[in-house]
Amino acid sequence: MFNEKSIKLFGRVAVRASNHSSSEFKTAQCRALLVHLAMSPGEEQSRKRLAEALWPEEGQGATGNRLSVALYHLRHLLDSLDEGFASCIVATRDSLVLVDTGIAVDFGQFRSSVQAARLTDDVAMKRLRYQDAVAKYSGGLAPEVAMPWLVTMQLETERMFQEAVLWLANDFDARSQRDKAMHVLSEALTVTTTLEPAAELLTRWHLDRGEVHLAKACATRIRRSLISIDVSIGPRMLGLIQKINSQVEPSSH
Question: What is the pLDDT of residue 101?
């Protein structure tokens, strides 16, 4: 049985308690408010700055009222899952804070694992911490929240995920476990399809094995994913694509 209270920020934003969960929020700002508070638990955030973040194009008076409404709806959602859940959000006249009451937040756990991996020289511990981080990452950081204040952290979080994935893949490969290394890369690319360095490494390893069509499929997938977000593919990946085409095209005649 799963009875812990948790907040999920990766993939689709959701809250869970007492074996009940929900990813349905009354408004987009209600969801964004939860994300803002859950990214910094225990940190008081001024109502003024929260209102400016959630309604950047509107005047302060109107947004102050709207923040109160968003908070009301968020508290209602939390208490609908578990009576008293909403008490984790403490509000004063000037600020809001998500208090640290043992609520599991996947984003915080992920970031802590990456930071711990970076700080240790113990390879076994580094491996464990990066594996913990990868396990927590189930998609981009709050992808439904299209707010300017979140963009930098979304990009940084994806870079941290890429760091963990590449380290683990290279670690497995160095221990002569390339199958496991390739599995790590493949799994990561199902979670986040725009990790070009991971796709490049997996493509190269497929080519090393003579798996040209698998290499082509991997390269095609990353190319389409990057095009979809208007990002140019890198020169090393382009070089691999050219190598793949030179091996595939002659056999097609």
Answer: 77
The packing angle between helices 106-119 and 148-174, to 10°, is 50
Contact between residue 104 and residue 113 where contact means Cβ atoms under 8 Å apart:
no
CB atoms within 10 A of CB 49: 12
**Rg over CA atoms, the chain:** 22
User: In this prediction, what percent of the chain has a pLDDT beyond 90?
Assistant: 84
DSSP tag of 147: -
* DSSP notation for 86-101: GGGEEE-SSEEEE--S
Phi, psi of 183 (to 5 degrees): -65, -40
pLDDT band at 249, cuts 50/70/90? low
By three-state DSSP, how is residue 242 classified?
helix
CA–CA distance, 95 with 46 (Å, rounded to integer) = 4
Beta strands across the sheet bearing 6-8: 20-22, 14-17, 6-8, 104-105
Place of tokens 């396990």: 135
Token representation of residue 172: 């497995």
pLDDT tens-digit map of 34-59: 999 999 999 999 999 999 999 988 75
Residue 174, SS3? helix
As a whole-number percent, the residues of the chain with pLDDT over 70 amount to 94
Whole-angstrom distance, CA of residue 73 vs CA of residue 27: 8
For residues 117, 122, 125 and 131, what is the CA-based torsion angle, rounded to 10 degrees? 50
Query: What was the pLDDT predicted at 64?
Result: 75
Euclidean distance between CA atoms 154 and 142, whole angstroms: 8
